[in-house]
Fold these 4 entries.
Entry 1:
Amino acid sequence: MRRAALLLLLVLAAGLAWIGPVRVQSQTDSDRQAALAAVAAPLFDQLAELRGMAAPGPPPPVLVQSRADNRRFIEQEINRRYSPAQLEAERKSMVAWGVLPASYDLQRLFLDLLEEQVSAYYDPLRKIMVVGDWLPPEQQRAALMHELVHALQDRELSLDAFVAPDPGRGDRLLARQALVEGEAVALSFDLLLKPQGSDMSRLPDLAATRGLIAASAGGPVIAKAPKFVRDLLLFPYVEGLGFLYQLRKRQPWSTLSAVYKDPPRSTTQILHPAKYLDAREDPLTVAVPDLSSLLPGMHFVAEDDLGESSLGAVLALHLGDQEGPRAAEGWRGDRYRIWEDAAGRFTIAYRVVVADLAAASALADQLKASVERRHPALGGKGHVRAGGGLVTWLEDGHAFAVERRGTSVVLLEHFPPPALDRARDALWRARSVGAPE
């Protein structure tokens, strides 16, 4: 789902800044480029000094270009990073989990959405900064500041490699994206506060600032996009800023170099910074075996993890936007595999591990409700087995199950009825949950 292995939208948004639609100015592109180049060097030095980076060198060149040129770049990046088969697997994973309508053209959505939202980006391959020609001068400078932070990041590590597609580790990739974008927002914010003799760590909270970031992503395309996609686009900026705020309350900017060498490994650590910054809680490794032999006539679609953020999105389908994420807070690790049959139905095998027995019991109940929410024909037809730890459904020749054992919960959807118990047994016998890789 979210993201299966492809966090396409977020990977493409690495280094991208967006500002809402604005009026076109009369100033020529060459004038704008000269003006931006004049402010880039001192801004670059100031950001580097604040970050504790010595001798960063000159900033990358600045290019001003149109929305159409931006769209061409985005499309080139999609083609560079992903095959059509990978994009289709990403789309089907989102559909299987219920966060994307079956008819959605995901690639077209991403192109349209990023064309609408992206006002600037840093290109780590060409080593240039690109700013939209439709922005007024003051917003061009604000966007430039954000991209200069990405240029500094690229001087310290390969930014392109740091947020490269990582099949099977979607949640880790989203956490890295949040670190990258969170720093760009937070460091720019600190530079703006510096003349006032203040910094971000002295603020009581960032609720208002995070709300403004979320509100800034406006336009007809994002307004019509599925909620999951909108939230995914905003996660690195909003939640990444929250993570950096907590880091800065504990440590100086200079310690961020060490964070990049051993970055957060899950969205849990972004959403709950203490699980990285204080008593570190890395995700557990969870195995889901290949059950293809039990699924004749079906073809494999994807394997990945949900992570706390996407598990919360799935649960939000029936719990609501507040309670869904809250119900996923005990997450410690998970894994899923998805197959598709000739009729376009998706079979899911999923295992999740949570913090304690109470969290596992509550999550099992929520996953049962999620099954009936995403498959309305199953409503009220669950059969309780094994002392209440296992609930199964049978509808139109397809079997479903949710089962809890200890702190683990297993979910199976659209299995052939004769294969259901064998699949359950295979999931529970799979390599035991272990320490992070």
Entry 2:
Amino acid sequence: MDIRIIGVDLAVKAQHTAAIYDPATQKFITKRRRFRSRPQDIDGVLAKAKQGASDDVKIIVILEATNMSWLEVGQYFHRLGAEVYRVNGRHTKAMRQIDTPHAHSDKLDGMALVKLYLVKKDKLVRWTPPGGELLALQRMSRELQRIVKQQTAIQQRLLDLTQWTWGGWRGVAPKAYQEWIMRHAYDPWTATALGAEWVQMRLLDDMPKAQTDWIAPWLQRAEERKRLYVTPETVGFPYITEFIERELDELNHLAKRRKTLTKDHLLPLYRQLYPNDVLTSLYGVGQRSAAIYHGFILSIHRFPNARRFGQWTGMVPRSFQSGTAENKHMRLSKQGPNLIKATLYQNADVARRWDIQLAYVYYTQMVTQGKHHTQAVCAVASHLANRIYALLRDQRPYQLLDLKGEPISADQSRAYIQKYLRVPEKIRKQRKRRQS
């Protein structure tokens, strides 16, 4: 059977460039053929590749993941029977630098993609179109990430603003009442003019079960800030109050949008696609997290083994070995999608409280290895990624096991962790100081 390999350097607005290679002659049929994302253009590339070949010629296409250009071109090649492989741009760059380290062009990138297939065929995974619904699930996950990022940014701005205008809320106003203060009496002059009695009455009208013991120390702090700034105009409290109100309105809008996206769109689509999802059998992994995993993984068969899947998540440490020297405990590669890393971290922090084996990993990292909390949770996240891969590969629910590999109930696991695998508070404080 004849084989033709097509390396496609994709562009966003300009023309794509295809390099066509014949393994039989070990020569390029063409090193640069320009085309656009149009059926007639792609048909022309295929026709050129099939010239002089048998009717059952095998077409292999290697695409670089450039924006979403790879989808429009890749799905058409796939539909016409070609084997399509999608690779990361870093791999293309590395291959090009081996061959032509001092030159860069679309033609050279197309040729590098062909050579990448020739020397790294066993490392590439065949790509198949995921379908519109899975892509929609991924888009919704990304949208959710953007909303959370915006919320975090606003919260951080308000926190920074309060730190220099009020000296921070710590030890003064509980978190449950901070937004209420910002909306009703953020200006220290306004706060003291209203007085403790009015503040307490108005607070209980809005929040009948609210605690009020914080009001006196909060008003004392307001008096301190008045003596510090002398007048409201010193730092522009009138403007700051208006700014905070706009920020809080935007924060509430984002919260509603986040809730609507999750409740009315993301989760219904996820349940439709995965009515009996094995991922939710993992402790720490809820439906929202499972939807994010599926939206980005698309198909677990893209990854030949758990090691490759772990590398994709970015939650595995780098490695270095030379001669007799070997560096261990290196930083995480952090190469995976940011949302996957964040979700794995959050899930791992919950899972370690219920799963004995993960709790043991966390305990060992903190107590024996001298890691701080974040490093220990990242180690747990790496193990959690292995579990996710195994469940999706085998399509079986998760079974809690003890340290000897025997089945155990959730209550037994939790009780054992509480009794034997809790990190002493003294050690936790020591690790915090080291981290800072």
Entry 3:
Amino acid sequence: MFYMIVDLSSNNGDVDFSEVSPAVDKVVVRTSLGYGDVDKNCSFYALHASLELIPLLYYHFAYMHDGVAPVDDATEQAEYFVSCIAWLPAYEDLVIDLEPENAQGDDTHLSQSDFGLWLQTFLDTVKAKTGKDMIIYSYADYLNRHLADGHAFGKYRLWIANYGNVDAPVLPKGWSEWYMWQYCEKGRLTGITTNVDFSKLNPVYVG
């Protein structure tokens, strides 16, 4: 069985979920970015997806601030993320999005050890407040550059981005399998006027 998953942010504009619902199995909604920045469309997307009975996931776009203690920065962002999702419809899972901060490729300057400390603090804080182990979203090159050899994050489910005509995604060090695969960044779907990311669930997790 093939699972179609789309992720949405305010970059996708207006979405007609009555048209989207027949084609998708899950919707991942961006709720927050860094600290104090909420996605302006998250409430609309979450409410209307839930009205169409589409299972929801929520994600936080990480901004790892240079010059701020990693534990303090991660805790603040995690608490903000939890506060944003508290008022939204019920969800299946939560995701931390790890990638460069903008289209120009601006990126964190944290060392691998501080990056790992930031990430573990964020994951632990969200787990303590929601009871959920988060999914990690990224791509192999990014995680390979920012995580130290022998890291312990492979215990978390991986949502890997890998586009192009490939049979399977490239995995970063520390993971032996993927949970979700974002295989297309320019998908077209009735009900969404912009390009949209397409992902699928690993068949081993399809019941």
Entry 4:
Amino acid sequence: MTIAEKAKEFFNKEIDKSRFADHFKDHIRELEKWEMIMEKKYPEADKEIVLLGIYLHDIGFSIGEDDDHAVTGEIIAKEWLEKEKYDTNKTKEVLHCIRAHRCKDVMPEILEAKIIAFIDSASHLTQGIYFGIARKEKEGAKYEALPKLERDYRDLSLFPEMKEDMRELYDAWKKLIEVYQKMDI
């Protein structure tokens, strides 16, 4: 079994602790589709690092939803990769992918981290998480759909040529969210 296959198995086992386990498993499948697209466009990227980034970037959600899952995920992944005796230099790259995937306090610096951040955001547009967020927002949740959509679309700037290809999808989600928010339902 490859290290990437082990990471996927580890993720699936750990994420089952989350009440959103089905969502995260769907998210991984969507990321795997995006990985294949990016692999063709950027064959120089280290596929193993990208796959480990895919399978471990949201591992922080396995122990809760309140903390910054990128920070928590970095800690969990580091422990797991060390237990697996994974290469130290590659571990640093995987951990950078995890920590930088939100383009928040750490920005992606290596190609593999840029790919993870991009496909995470792109997958949100193609997986369609925004309507669920908008629904929860109406129920009083603090997490808001339009700002999330805006952050995801911003992060597509890591690959500008691909961002433009996603413009219509972004516009459609924005309009749908705005219309839904006006409804008294």
